[in-house]
Structures are given as C-alpha cells and as structure tokens.
Amino acid sequence: MSIKNAHHPNVLTIDYVVFQRNLSANLKKQVDSNAAIEEFFDDLTKLMDDIVWFHKSLMPTLNYADSAASASQDCLIHLLLGVDSIQTKLAELMLQKLIIYESDKQLSSEIAGDVNMPRLIVNQFRWLDNIVDSKKLLDTIWEVLEALSTLDFKRELICCIPEIIDDDQHSSVAVKLGEMLLQDGELTVPLLDTMSNLQLEAGLLDEVRERVMSIVASCEMEDLPVVVKFILQSVATEKPEKALLVISELREKLDFENFVPPSSSEQTQTQPAGSRGCECLILDAIKTSACFFKVVSDAWFKVTTATIVITCRRGDGSDRNLTGAVVSPCRR
User: Fold this and answer.
1) How many Cβ atoms sit within 10 Å of the Cβ of residue 62?
2) What angle do CA 65, 68, 73 make, to 5 degrees?
3) What DSSP string runs through 64-101?
4) By the number of CB atoms within 10 A of the CB, which of 23, 187, 195, 211 ranks highest?
5) What order of strands is seen across the sheet that includes strand 11-12?
6) pLDDT per residue over 158-175, tens digit each?
C-alpha cells in the first residue's frame, strides 16, 4: 500500500487479498504479536487524527499501474477491517470516531466539498466477508447510539446493524429496536427498515408488530407509509385469519384527521398539500402489498367489503371513500 499525502488517493501496489494476508502474517509472526498489534494501532490512531488523511482512508484506493483489475479497490479502512486479528479493535475505534465528529463539527470543515463523514465511517462495516466478534461489536454500537444525539449519525448506524450481526442475534436485536421505537419517534423509519431485514420467529414477530401497531395513531404523517408497509409485509406469511385481524386493526387506526402533522414548525398553507402527498404514499404502500401478497389482498377485500370504509379528510372538508382505491386495482 502506497500512502499518499494531501488529497491524492492511496495506491494499492498489490492485490487486496495479498495485502490483507501479508499484514495478518506479519502481525502474527512477531515474537509478541499483541505488542505488535498495539504498536500498529498507536501509529494508525495518530494517522486517523489527521482529518484529511482519515477521510482519504475512507475513500477507494487506486490500483497499481500494471494491475489487470479495475482502476480502484476498497478503501484502506475497509481493507484493514478484513484482517481478523485487528478487526474488533479497529471497529471500536471507528465507532468512537462517530462520537468525536458529533462533538466537534468543525473537524469536517477541513475537508473540501460536502462530505458525509458518518456515512463514510458506517459504510466500512458493509460487505465484510467475516465478522470476528459480532456480539462485542453490537454491544459497542448500542453504547455509541446512547452517546449520540444527532439523528443523522444514529440513522446511519442503525441501518448497518443487519450487516454485522449473526443469525442467532436477530431476535435480541429486534427486541432492542422495538424498545427504541417506542422511545424515539424520530427514528421510526430507520428502525423499521432495519427490523424488516431481520429474520424473526412467529411469536417475536407478533410482539414486534404489536409495538409498531401501537404507534400508528401517534406517529408523524411522513413516517406512516413506512409503518403501514412494515405491518402489511409482516403478515404476508401469516394465515388468512391472522392477516384479517391485523389489517382490520390497521384500518381502524388509519384516521387521517387526527394524525400528527409532519412537523410542528410546518404550520403553513402548504401543509394540506403535503398531507395529501403522505396519504398517497400510504395508499400506494397498501396497494403494493395487496398486489404482491395474496393474503394481504384477500384480507383488505374482506375488510373493505364488510360495509366498513376507510375515509380521509380533504383540505376542503369533504370525505373521500377509499374502499376501491385500496384493493380493486389488484383484483381485476
């Protein structure tokens, strides 16, 4: 690896697999491998304290001139995370960087252009071939989430969780995310997006769905399409009787007149139009689920033909019957 100065990209002078193998072998063959790893991290930490160098290490490296591979490869930090002997320690160091950048927002100003450092940092945990100690890494993520206050930082970190946990951790993670869902409404979308990527047993899925259902009437209108989508997708593999019960409850809770507006500060003349836009997204989520999942379509059909209709209030005060809009396009 050729480490360049200033804003010039780093150059990988050998194949990335050979780079990782050689680094791992060099650290292990030392008389005191633990001391060698500590020394390596001392030097790496000093380099990472330089914001320009650190930013560059989060960007793709260039290939050496004679390489037959593509012009660029993984960034330096991602390559280092692929070395088992240093992965856990480096991952903890990277997560601590999120806290540092939140507390000192002036650091990012030293980098030219509009740079999303939290996203670049979190992206290093994606597409890793192996996670050495996913439990320890997950524990660190929970600690960092409690320490962070910036929503963007939290969103990025939450969304990467499915990519760093083992299959046997899905249930415990879902329980934790479900608790966060009830505590912080501003994280509704990333929490549901993350939970939708977890494999849950039937009993736990029911528990999670109940928690999500409990926030339907109180969540912000702009989050509601994601909430509705999650609930409907969660019943896609259920028996028709269960799907009918869930969708009946959802239908009762979908009261557009009483939903919390997108933001308390957006009390403007454009709010009704924005609300109608959210209503359209909600209906689109319902239609899409009904079209792709027969059990959902059948349940909606039964609900909407049982002389019970879903209505939403237009800005001019008139009612609009949504019975046909929900199901009929998929049942022709």
Assistant:
1) 18
2) 75
3) PTT-SS-SEEEEHHHHHHTSHHHHHHHHHHHHHHHHHH
4) 195
5) 11-12, 60-63, 72-75
6) 999 999 999 999 999 999
